[in-house]
Amino acid sequence: MTSPERLARAYLLRVAEPPAPALLTFVAEHGPVGAAEAVRRGEVPEAVLQETSARREIDLAERDLAGAREAGARLVIPEDDEWPAWPLLSLDVATGRGAEGVAAPLALWVRGAARLDEAADEAVAIVGARAASEYGQHVSSELGYALAEHGVAVFSGAAYGIDGAAHRGAVIAGGVTVAVLGCALDAGYPAGHVGLYDRIARRGAVVSEYPPGTPPARHRFLVRNRLIAGLTAGTVVVEAGARSGARNTAATAGALGKVVMAVPGPIGSAMSVGCHRLIRDAHATLVASAADVLETVGRLGTGDAPQPRSPRRRTDGLGPQALRVHEALGERRGKSPEGIAAESGVPLPRVRALLPALELDGLSERCETGWRRARTPPPRS
Amino acid sequence: MTSPERLARAYLLRVAEPPAPALLTFVAEHGPVGAAEAVRRGEVPEAVLQETSARREIDLAERDLAGAREAGARLVIPEDDEWPAWPLLSLDVATGRGAEGVAAPLALWVRGAARLDEAADEAVAIVGARAASEYGQHVSSELGYALAEHGVAVFSGAAYGIDGAAHRGAVIAGGVTVAVLGCALDAGYPAGHVGLYDRIARRGAVVSEYPPGTPPARHRFLVRNRLIAGLTAGTVVVEAGARSGARNTAATAGALGKVVMAVPGPIGSAMSVGCHRLIRDAHATLVASAADVLETVGRLGTGDAPQPRSPRRRTDGLGPQALRVHEALGERRGKSPEGIAAESGVPLPRVRALLPALELDGLSERCETGWRRARTPPPRS
């Protein structure tokens, strides 16, 4: 038995092209069933009419839900436990602030094994250009792999290039990845990724707010981007040209108060121009590794992402005068303290005091002709 | 006739290993001639004695000055018009703040056609790793070339790798470049750059605070770095490993209140790790072009460095509803306004109003079966 709420939301998803902020508010006030009734009759405020009049007579809710079931998909609605209410709150808040075009979805069509709320609990978006370079695709799939391996769900837009590589990396790691589409689940777009959707659905999910049969369109990709930004803690742009939908996702993420990150690349690469501008002009955080991403979204300190440490030199702890004395020492021939003082410019009494101190550190040694650098440095603990 | 001030400073430059903040203050109080006399006699405060006792009996001032003359070099002292007093003020200010190891130089040995004060007037430092990648060397020489071509003097440390490439780029552009050494002008170091020094000196300058015969040493490179940072408006790090002297120059530049910039690179390159950390952790400004560098140090707006503009789409000015209507239009077959309304989700009356508006923009056209996208877009003014 399909609940009336689910039927009502399936109907409304087909009637109103998202985002539909006026309808969303109307549903919040009257509940989905009452709101759907009013929309059907056309007895709604002008703003809601604007969003619903064109398609309000089309009611395919029963058929859409049955078709989804057949295709192994489901309609996740805010009344379900699975609804990712917490991350999507950012969209409500942004709408309240008057940000245009970022209303929350009325419901989401979902296919896949993952629970949407659990996937969104620790999630990062990896997005970027379709016309990605080999470098970008490599970086994207490595990032997807490493983040998935650390238990982070990788969200992306399922496009060719950076998006696909990120999904693939996460799939190979056996992790959770979620594809959010700008068309219906059954649109078969892009054609080359239909097989990938099946692999994603095994542990992750394919998600869309568009009813069955909806074809892709540029404005739908832009609208979809708010979901990718909203459902995750932060967005990583791997490659983006001077104009790129990925930069739109990044801008939306920023507007929603999420973390915006970008991967740098060679400055001669047109595909890194967008990333460099994001870092330079929009203060996106530069990320050069999965560890950087985890640190930026605040997962560090859990012990599972050690930061690489700078290599240390044996002379690192020395003060400026000790360093100068050490530099003045010969590799083979010993030198007198007087000679070392003249060469280093360090006063003779200080040289006399520093030489034995360096010896204790294993950095200098006495020989017949005076002092020289130690030959066999002891292992450092 | 050599002035007593020049003789005194030549003597002090050999006596005190820079930086010598106590001696610098002592010279400011007593003048170079009086200060040199007191140092010779050892009648100076304890802090000055620390900096001068080891070598105060060595007086080769006459010989050093004569040797420099023969080699086509000169000693530039604060009493000269050529002294770059204004940029070096940053070192005095930093010393006053208690920053260690950044005292101004007592004088500078200079070889080359450029006046030091004029070169430092509009100057940028380009520094980086010796073990630079091909990418890094290419970027460095291109940056050096472009900045020199814009009348900016390119300062660097004359090392192999990034430094040498920056000098070379500026030389090829016929511009001014200044090499600041961590050894004497006559040390012949690094051996492979002796010929480059001659080319630099033709229009630029080779500079050192070390008296003739001083060999290179690691601590001298670190000390020299403060001059590169101090003499320029900003420092660009092109490539740097996890540990790199270039990062030291950048840190010093930051401490002196100068602009710190870094060039990104492929994240897999060990030679870009230092740059990425500078941008990520130390808030260095990402620069991906000479135009970025000029903008960052504040030369933009002079009209000689136009920023590349984003390409524009013909649909850029459209609102969300117009965009949706435009997307719903077919390329060949015309559609009815009713069909377009259903497909786009835009209310029919709005569709009827938007279609002629799109026609005026050259984006839609009427045909026998309804409306479709315009086939021959008119040129956009």
Automatic annotation (TrEMBL), chains A, B:
Q: Which Pfam families match?
A: DNA_processg_A
Gene3D superfamilies referenced in this protein's UniProt entry, alphabetically? 3.40.50.450
Which ranges carry the Smf/DprA SLOG domain? 77-297
Family matches, as InterPro entries: DprA, DrpA_SLOG
Give me any GO biological process, just one: DNA-mediated transformation
The record, for NCBIfam families, names: dprA
Q: Which family does it belong to?
A: Belongs to the DprA/Smf family.
Q: Know the name of this protein?
A: DNA protecting protein DprA
Q: Provide the species name.
A: Prauserella muralis
Q: Which lineage is the organism of this entry classified under, starting from the top rank?
A: Bacteria, Bacillati, Actinomycetota, Actinomycetes, Pseudonocardiales
